[in-house]
Amino acid sequence: MGLKAIARKNAIHAMLVYTGGCNGCDIEVVNAIFSPRYDIEQYRVLITWNPREADVLIVTGCVTWQMVEPLKKLYSLIPDPKGVVAVGACAINGNVYKNMVGDIGVNEEVFAPVDNIIPVDVKVPGCAPRPEDIIMGAVKAVPKLMEAP
Amino acid sequence: MMERKVVEKEISIGPVHPALIEPYRIRLFVNDEIVEDCEININMAYRGIERLLEGLPVEKALLITERVCGICSNVHTWNSVRVVEAGLRIEVPDRANYIRVLINEIQRIASHLIFFGHAFEVLGHETFAMRSFLLREVFMDLMAYIGGNRVMPAVPVIGGIRPRADLTDSLKRVISERINDFEKKYREYVERILADSMIMSRLTGVGLLSKEDAIKYHATGPNGRASGWNYDIRTLMHEYEPFDFEVIVLNEGDNKARVVQRALEVFECLKIIRQILKNLPEGPIVNRDWIPGKMNYTISYFEAFRGELMHSCALDSQGLIRGYKIRTPTPTNLAAMERACVGDHITDAILTIASCDPCLTCCTRVEVINFDESKTMTVMDIMKKYGRR
User: ipTM of the predicted structure?
Assistant: First the structure.
């Protein structure tokens, strides 16, 4: 392990972006990172709200049309190397908002898989996923950061 | 003496910002660091839920109504079930009603504890925020034991509850043990908040909302009750008739009153849960003897954790949903929040908004008002003027 990798491993900053959806995953992510019971900070993953400081971007929610441009902008602001974790069924396939429609057929408000907008490295399924799974997902994004040149 | 020059400035916060968990935008019009006016824009999370529900079978609609909001998921499921039960006159067994109330009160406590976490994080006291998230885990576990999921327990179905959510004797014992343990810790927690002079000086006398304003802007729920307005739909609902509880009403109307009101309401919720565990009747849990058919437009009002909630819909002859409408408590509470911010220092504005407990995912909808002609625009007018979006 080079010096760079050690330095990166010791301070991984995660940023949370909430792009629509129902708030459930959002609170579970805050629970996983912030609350004393799960406490992702013991693996030296810290939460930040500044994209220039972040290494891992955690995206929750089906992407509504107002959040498409802010999401692209936030992704471009994060310095390389960077990892993206899509948390929740909404971020992976659009959940009920995209797949369970009545008469209208196609829901044009939702730009659902986050894959369509920015590249995703790790996907955490569930509605809402358990905090244990979210911690697992955030830790799985770490090797990509460390192996980067 | 030189006359002081006054410069009015606008400060815009959001939609992605550390102080706001949900995406919304606050515009504060500031004059000499005193907030003159406040405007909250909420339409970042519009998903078109009411339109999605059009033409779905009623049983499937429960999956979408549960995902209106992730904090108060049980409220929306139960209320959409109540609309259909009232319209088609479906009898619900007593045992099912008791368990519905149980899961609702468990989620109400979890929601109030999120409020403490958010409010104290905004206030800058992380110890209390973390402590409240730790206390909340008791109720997330109980929801997982009863419903199978921490966030979306999905307990009510039309005519009763899901068979999985039936209470066994061992589960009852677990619930009563956890609740006794929680109450001891929670009492200490509340006493420490009230004894902390730093927090109290930050909260007292800030963000005043008078009783007249609360009634004028229709600030229902804990915000109205903290301003001295005795209004709780739980006292009118037949599901809550067997239980003995008090409606907490405080008269101050400031941030401290809103925090203390919710803190005291948790004890009433615990009282209701104890009564359920003591008097739970035996019998069937679900009534399957009904068929979906033609239903006239029916409205159901409900006391959600943040105020008054309205669901309404009609069914056509095949049992498909037509014209679903949801009105959540936050749109009316938003106007009260904007009013409560005015006149205080700018550092207290976010705290005042957080102390009103906004839940913005469930309240986003189209609402364009044309002030020049003083009439509300219809959908066709909006499409003509602004296009599809």
Answer: 0.89
